[in-house]
Amino acid sequence: MEPLDPLFRRESGRMTAVLTRIFGVHNLALAEDVVQDAFCRALEVWPFRGMPDDPSAWLMATAKNRALDVLRRERTARTFAPELGRRLDSEWTLVPSVEEQFASPAIKDDLLRMMFSCCQPRLGEEAQVALVLNILCGFSVDEVAGAFVATHAAIEKRITRAKKVLAGSKYLFDVTHDGEFSARLPVVHRALYLLFNEGYHGASAESAVRAELCREAMRLAAMLHEHPLGATPASHALSALMCLHAARLPARIDASGDLHSLFDQDRSRWDGHLIAEGQRLLDLSAVGPDLTEYHLEAAIAWVHATASTAEETNWDRIVALYDLLLAIRPSPVVALNRAIAVAQRDGPEVGLREIHGIADAERLDGYPFYPAALGELELRSGRSALAREHFQAALALARNPMERRFLEQRLAACPYNKPR
Amino acid sequence: MNQYLFLYRGAERPTSPQDIQDIMQKWMNWLEDLGKKGHLKDRGQPLEPIGKVVTGKQKTVTDGPFAEAKDLVGGFSIIEAEDLAHAAELSKGCPVFERNGYVEVRPIMTM
Question: Is A1 on the interface with B (CB under 8 A)?
Fold first, then answer.
């Protein structure tokens, strides 16, 4: 077995999606039990018989047989998927119906259905993301807790509650209903975006955990834009922005686990394949009248990805893109990033004025990169003592050892008592 | 070299996909390693967790399980080792221990 192939996690989402479609969303727990049974069966058999040639197919076939057993045994006691109706009742139609659900195009539909079902607006964004991770990505409660730097108890409560809401809805989300689909799609985009961000900027100290979150978000976003129903400009833009950001990951966190800002990254370590893929997706996103925040963020990332150095970056263009982004989705973090771009273009003094002019700056109170940005610009303006104060404030807010090391290095870069 | 039967007993079921992945990997690695070192006579077979017991002169048939869950045999392998102590030593790498299971090591009679 390839040690890094996350076979069981990946199959967990696929199998749960198919089985929930067959059993009905109210039987989500039953679907999860059947997945668990199939996995344990693999664990009992594979060590002795060896890995099957196609492990995914083996797991799916095992789940299918279990599902047929359950349907035959319990069809008088339980009601199953209302969508499949009476076809599960008679032996004549049972097997072909179940076979059909386990065919590969049906699985893709089921995954999409599950993704949209997890993103119930009633749940709140954090619960949506936790549910997506748990059901579609096969993360355990502990693994979700590790990703969010939250306690086991808090995440367990969040997931249990979310599953109750999901199981309480009568039907899985109907992805063929145009109006509902286009209303839910932005919610799904947002959840996947947050999942990616948690990996890219999140508080988890484990870089492996974070890379995994980015990878999962990219996998789900690709699943969305590769599906005929999900292939919208915004879906392409979302995937593009993930690719273009992920391309910088190898240089953002180096082999010794040190964080590097965009300005001092070794750009030769950026991933050229991901940049090319991001560019391809960005082109695909540029149709129709919609300009989403994902288009703008992807465009910003693209300008960075194609600049050979920080100095040669087209900062004018980046500031303009941030202006548009602020108009669509005003946020103090976006404003802070815009101010940093302005500083690159017009010098640190102008940048500082921009930072001090940010509306809602109090929302950045716990964000270490707010005082860090102030420190950086004060340092460049030659006010070393002031810069040091800001870096010290940033250090007090650092969320993990990696951020702490980074800020300590910036603090150490501030010279003592000699204004330049 | 003498032959020994390893009976894998009573392992608890793992719950998360990643746990299953990890334990599977350990089983594969452990058996592969035993094979490479020439200790694996036969990987053996897994056993279903159900069965029947036939007892007495009346040959009464009852449904299993006939052991507590913590003692249930999940599978067996045949191992080659110098002696019983060596065989027991070899069993120590088995992933069954991580899930509160145990290995019963039984010499196969040579004559």
Answer: yes
